[in-house]
Fold:
Amino acid sequence: MSNPLKIGVYSLVIISGCMTIACGVKYSYSQPATIEKEESDE
Structure:
C-alpha cells in the first residue's frame, strides 16, 4: 500500500525541482555575461 503523504512529498519535491531547473535555465540564458564574469573573477 502506498502512503498518500509520501506521494504528496514526492510530488512536491519533483515540482519544486522542475521549477528550480526552469529558473536556473532561464537565469543562465538571460544573464550569460554575469555568470562568465563571476567565473573569471574566481
